[in-house]
Amino acid sequence: MSDEGCRVLSIQSHVVSGYVGNKSATFTLQVLGFEVDAINSVQFSNHTGYKHVKGQVLNSDELGDLFDGLLLNDIHHYSYLLTGYIGDPSFLQRVGDVVKELKRVNPNLVYVCDPVMGDNGKMYVPESLLPIYKDTIVPLADIITPNQFEAELLTDIKITSEEEARKAMQCLHDKGVGTVIISSSDLGPEDVLIGLGSTENNGLKKGIRIEIPRLPVNFTGTGDLFAALLLAWWDRHPNNLKLVCEKTIATMQQVLRRTLKAAQALAGPGKTPSVAQLELRLIQSKKDIETPEMHIKVTEL
After folding, report:
1. Residue 157: which of 176, 182, 193 has the closest Cα?
2. Confidence category of residue 3, pLDDT binned at 50, 70, 90
3. Which of 37, 96, 107, 28 is nearest to 64 (CA)?
4. How far is CA 180 from CA 19, 152, 278, 286, in A?
5. Are 245 and 200 in contact (CB under 8 A)?
6. Do 231 and 248 meet the contact criterion of CB atoms below 8 Å apart?
7. Average pLDDT of the segment spanning 191-202
8. pLDDT of the residue at 4
9. In whole angstroms, how large is the CA radius of gyration of the chain?
10. What is the SS3 assignment for 161?
């Protein structure tokens, strides 16, 4: 990173309360020294795990207006593009145009795509987004971070083993993606999540495997935090996927454990924490974001 810092354009959700999407990515990246410009794909009161959600979903025209403003003022020069939750098909289609223009201006721009579509066998975006991801977005991505279910959707490969996961990652490589990371999967024991990654660079291929301790609650926004951290550490350690993932998962674990401890204290003994109590404790984890304690070991394959 130069003295001027890397500039990131982050296109994903915004919530008034809580830490998902741009609320998570912007803080995380700024703490690590990045200049972050944010375009919100949706503007919600809170994330969709709550009983009630109010707000707006932006469409392609609204994205186009914002991006045109950047173009007209010649302030569309970025080192990285990060995309996450998008709720409108026309918006996602326009993102493809944005990627192409940013790469025309800076051929070295790295596009990190978190293809947020669902988890645990269920989609929580319109199904019409899937073909746009497959045909338009994935071929433009340099790094992609699907979970197990999203990798299945993108490749039409049912993943029930690590071998099938590697086939899915190769399928995404074949579409032009240089680095593929399946951020979490249920391919290990009940108390462990398995993460898998693969890079192809100049004909050389490397793979990694991560065993991630599974905590006894469901958090929201972990994928958003994962993608932002991955981008940051990739900039510091380009093409060293093992170290990048070790630092990323180390921070994730510290943030989640702090969040769980605080949530359990608020809920009281023997009670299950509420959705609101399980909002990620990002602000309290600033030091962990800056200097993660390396307790997670990644195996190179």
Report:
1. 182
2. very low
3. 96
4. 25, 13, 29, 27
5. no
6. no
7. 94
8. 58
9. 18
10. coil
The catalytic residues are 224
Rounded Cα distance between 239 and 245, Å, is 11
209, HSE (Cβ side, Cα atoms, 13 Å): 12
What is d(CA 176, CA 160) in angstroms, rounded to the nearest whole number?
24
Neighbouring residues of 6: CB distance < 8 A, sequence distance ≥ 6: 33, 34, 35, 79, 80, 235
Tokens representing 263 are 């949530």
Question: What is the dihedral angle through the alpha carbons of 99, 103, 109, 114, rounded to the nearest 10 degrees?
Answer: 20
Tell me the one-letter amino acid at 206.
K
Structure confidence by residue, pLDDT tens digits, 234-246: 999 998 999 999 9
Q: pLDDT at position 129, please?
A: 98
Strands 80-83 and 7-15: parallel
Helix, strand, coil shares of the chain, percent, nearest 5, are: 40, 20, 35
Cα gap 193→175, rounded to integer Å:
26
Confidence (pLDDT) at 1: 54
Q: Whole-angstrom Cα distance, residue 112 to residue 18?
A: 23
Kindly report the backbone phi and psi dihedral angles of residue 293, in degrees, each rounded to the nearest multiple of 5, phi listed first.
-85, 125
Does residue 135 sit in helix, strand or coil?
Answer: helix
Question: Contact 142/115 with Cβ under 8 angstroms?
Answer: no
